[in-house]
Amino acid sequence: MSDAWQYQLRIYLRDELVETARFRANDPALGQLLQILQKHSATMKCQFDAFAEYVRGRELSMHAKPEHRILLGPFFESSDDSNAQH
Fold first, then answer.
1. Is 31 left (phi over 0), alpha (psi -120 to 50) or beta?
2. Domain extent at residue 80
3. What value does the CA radius of gyration of the chain take, rounded to a whole number of Å?
């Protein structure tokens, strides 16, 4: 683990900027937010994307014990579709 401190700030954007921030983080539409992030060597990450990355990392970890793995659907696997929940 690094000695550098890590912080997490949650910001809420206007609906019309959410997709821009998620997929085009350097878009000028984000205005001063880009300057602030750059000044502090910070990056943005969508909360969903951060969680999905965490889950992928845990699942791919060769050291993860089966009981510590996280399963993201399907929740029921069966050769008989009548048992599956939709």
1. left
2. 48-86
3. 19
Number of domains in the chain: 2
Same domain, 54 and 39: no
**Which is nearest to 58 in space by CA: 67, 74, 47, 69?**
69
For residue 75, tell me if it sits in a domain.
yes
44-62 pLDDT, tens digit each: 888 888 899 888 887 777 5
Q: Are residues 56 and 81 in the same domain?
A: yes
Residue entry with tokens 């000695």: 3
Structural tokens at position 29: 């539409």
74 φ, ψ (degrees, to nearest 5):
-70, 145
Beta-carbon-side half-sphere exposure of residue 23 (alpha carbons within 13 Å): 5
Q: Whole-model pTM?
A: 0.54
